[in-house]
Amino acid sequence: MYYYFFRPDLSRHVEHYYAWVRAARSQGLPMKLATLLQRDQIRAQAKDVAYWKDKEGFELIRPLWPRSYSKQVESHFRRVVSKHGWVTVQVHNQPLEPFLRLRDRLGSRVRIIVYYEGDQISELEYIREHPYKPGFYDDPTAAIQANLARQNSELEQCDHAIVVTPFFKNLLIDRFPKLDLGEKISVLPTGGNVNGTELDPGAREKVRTKLGLKDELLLTYVGNVRYSWQSFPSCLAAYQTIKQQVRPDARLLLLIHSGQEIATDFLNRYQIPESDYTLTSIRQEEMGSYLAASDIAFLLRPDHPAMQCGSPGKFADYALSGVPMLISRGTGEYGTWVERDALLPMIENIDDQTEILSAARRLLEMTWDDRQNLRQWALRNVATPAFAESYAEILRGVSGSGKT
């Protein structure tokens, strides 16, 4: 039995994880997406629990109070092995200890895959070097050292690891030369959830009406703003440039799940009036409609090793929805593919307003057919189903005998 086991939070990114489970199942592999919520978390996330609990291939593991979280996880997966004879678990943002204990007891019937969407160490190094302002973050030095030790231990003890860019794989090989990681790490991009990303004129009109828009230019930012590498101030500066020099009717849509108070602080600093923007959060299944309503989306990131270790899921969301985007080099492999296929103008310096203007003017020339072509490119190149065969091959290889 195959499992994708993720952190106890149903509010963000679960659709993306579920897309990988569907990809594996499309290749004939019995796989489930699973997490363990404690009783207070179930109450706090009641709407999300109701949405997910009956989805095919999803399992909400029942809490076994008063056991520790780690013991609850171990107990559940021991039952899985008892029922199916074996389990291969892809562990995402979860401790390995319960699976290591289980493997110590049950041997090769338990296989462990570590999944890294990005390199927390490089990200911490970036925010130490580039805080929003002095004292904004606690000194991350201790966290960097702790993450180094944890990453070394996980890579040494897991059966396999999956990362999202070749750059990240090479960084880990160089960072831990004694572990001989060349054959132990596979590369798969973050992928993108296809469901709900149709480029629908009706959905576009409905959301724009809800936002009080007719023909205004809508520029959209998606994500949170807690980390300086997300370059939220650069996006606001780009918005102001476009509004002042290209489209005075430009409006700003900020779909921010976490850190809205930080966003508000920056909006005030940049003297952007409330009438110019909508600051809200939405459910993942609504994302396609809001992106269809958008004219340009922001994906501005610094050109830094931390960014080359990731393949931002936002890129897949935008491209699958056919949204023209202001994109920079700090977008991992996706930026390389954009340049290779000449899809969009590539921004070298995210704070160079001359570059921003040039790119924005080119994006505004894109037609609805161009947006459809961008979506079709994304379906072939970045949607999770495009990687289904490669993913299944990795899972079968790790399971030890091509188990299906």
What would you note in describing this structure?
By secondary structure, this protein is of the alpha/beta class. The protein has helices at 14-26, 39-44, 46-52, 69-84, 97-106, 120-129, 141-157, 166-175, 201-210, 232-245, 260-269, 287-292, 305-308, 313-320, 332-340, 353-364, 368-381, 388-399; strands at residues 2-6, 31-36, 58-61, 87-92, 110-116, 160-163, 185-187, 218-223, 251-256, 277-280, 296-299, 325-328, 346-347. It has a 7-stranded parallel beta sheet, sandwiched between helices. Strands 10-9-8-11-12-13 form a 6-stranded parallel beta sheet, with helices on both faces. Helix 11 links the parallel strand 9 (251-256) and strand 10 (277-280). The longest helix has 17 residues, at 141-157.
Give a brief description.
This protein is 47% helix and 15% strand. The chain is α/β, with parallel strands linked by helices and 404 residues long.
Which terms would index this structure?
404 residues, alpha/beta, Rossmann fold, 2 domains, 7-stranded parallel β-sheet, 6-stranded parallel β-sheet, 18 helices, globular
Q: Give the overall average pLDDT.
A: 94
Query: DSSP helix count?
Result: 18
Q: Which regions contain 5 or more consecutive residues with pLDDT less than 50? A: none
Task: Provide the gyration radius in Å.
Answer: 22 Å
Please report the total strand number as a whole number: 13
CATH class label of the largest domain:
Alpha Beta
Kindly state the percentage of residues in helix.
40-55%
Summarize the main sheet. 7 strands, parallel
> In what order do the strands lie side by side in the largest sheet?
3-2-1-4-5-6-7
Taken as a percent bin, the fraction of beta residues is 15-25%
